[in-house]
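User: My collaborator sent over this chain with a note saying "see what the structure looks like." That's all I know about it. Can you take a look?
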Amino acid sequence: MIKYKSTRGSSAEKTAAQAVIQGLAEDRGLYVPDSIPALPFQPSEMIGRPYKDIARAVISAFFTDYTGEEMQACVDGAYDEKFEAEDIVPVTSAGGAYFLELYHGKTAAFKDMALSILPYLLTTAMKKEKEDKKIAILTATSGDTGKAALEGFADVEGTEIIVFFPSDGVSEVQKRQMTTQEGKNTHVFAIHGNFDDAQTGVKKIFNDDEFSAMLKENGIKLSSANSINIGRLVPQVAYYVYAYIRLLEQGAVKEGEKINIVVPTGNFGNILAAYYAKNMGIPVNRFICASNKNKVLTDFINTGVYDTNREFYCTNSPSMDILISSNLERLLYHLSGGDGAAISKLMEDLENEKRYQVSGAVKEKMSDFFGGFADEEETKKAIAEMYEKYGYLIDTHTAVAYKVYEDYRNATGDETPTVIASTASAYKFAVSVAEALNMPKEPDGFAYVRALCEKTKVKIPSGLKDLDKKEIRHDSVIDRTALAKAVKDSLGL
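Assistant: Without extra context I'll predict from the sequence alone. Here is the result:
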C-alpha cells in the first residue's frame, strides 16, 4: 500500500484517505507518496477507452486504500455530463503542437479536472476514516481554483468552503464566477492584496495551533482544495497519461516514443503532475515550464536560485501572477532523495530570506526541465498568431505556453511531438484576447465575451453565458490580515 509522508520529514505516514482529509501535514510540509506507482497498463492497451477508465486506473494506482467500487463511484460522479466535450479532454493539433484542452468543465478552466473529483475523494475518505467532524475547506485562488472548488463543494454535506482571492488580481469573468456562487456552505472574500498574500494567509491559519484547537473544540477540521492537497494533485496526473494515449491513437507517436510537455504555471502543481506521469512510465523528453512576467520559476530552473525579492506584476495572464510556488516543494523533495531536513531548511530560508538556493546535485537532476517566459505583448502576439494563422482560439495562459514552446524549439531545434496544457477558455480572459485580436473596445468584460463569440463563432461555455445577469451573493472585501476573522465569521464562531 502506498503511504503519504511530509516533504519536511517529521510527520507520521498517512494513508491516501487521511492525507486527503488533512490537506497539509502537521509539520507544515506537503504530502507526497512514498513511491510513485508504475502505470497499471501499457498505454496502447487503453486506446479507444474513455477518460473515466484511464482516470480511475491512474488515481487508483496512487490511492491504494480506496476500493475499486469507491474509486469507480468517485470517477462516475466527477466525469459526467457536466463536461461539455464528449471525450472530456479533447487533444487538438495546431501550430505544430498538440493542445490538451483542459477547460471543458463547468468553470471553463483546467482546475475542473481535479476539483470535480476532489469532493468525492474527500467525502469517501471521511466515511472510511469515520470522520464525524465538519470539514472547513480553505482555499486561496488566483482565479480558477476558487470557482472550481466552490462549484465542487457547493452544498456537499459536512463541508464549508471558504475562498479568498485578490480583489484586483483576477479577470472580470473570474470575479463574477466566484461572487455569484450559490450554495448554503459557500463563502467568498476578496482581499486587498495579491495571490501570494491570500496563499500566505491561508497557510498561516493551517499552521496556527491555537486556531486549530479552537476549531476542534467546535467539531471542525481544516482541509484544502488547493493543489497543496494530494487529492487535488493526483487526478491531474491522469490527463497527461490520457494525452499520451490519444497521441498514440492519432498516430502522432509510436509506443515508447517520447513527447515534450509544456505547462503555463505559477504554482507548479500542473507541471508536477506531468513529472509524476513520467515517473509512472509515460515517456517524456522535456518539461517546458512557461512563466509570465512573474518569472520566478523560469529563473529558478535556469539558476537553481529561487528568489522572491522582486517586483510583483499584475499581467494579462493573472492565474500565473504568483511568486511563491508551493508545489515546487514536492519536486525538490523527490529530487533530494526524500531529504525532509534539507527541504525544511530551504522553506525556512524562503520564509526568512525570501530566497533559497538548491544544491548542485539537485540542480543537475533538473536537466529535463526548460524554463522560459513571455511578457504581455508577446502573449498577445501568440494569441493573434494562433488565430490568424491556424484559426485556433487560445486564452492568455495557453498563449504564454505557446510562445515559450516556440522559443524552446528555436533555441534547441527539438522537434519532439509536444503537448501544450491549454488551461482555460479564451472567454475567461475575453478582454485581453479581444485586445490581442485588435477588436473594438467594449463597455465591459461581458460585452467582450459576446463580441469575441460573434467574431470567432467559438461557442461560449455554458457556465460563462449570461454570467453578468446572475445575482452577486458575495461582496465582502477584507484586509489581507483579516483572513482568520473571516473564517471564524463564516463558520459562525
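A starting point for your reply to your collaborator: The first strand starts at residue 4 and ends at 6.
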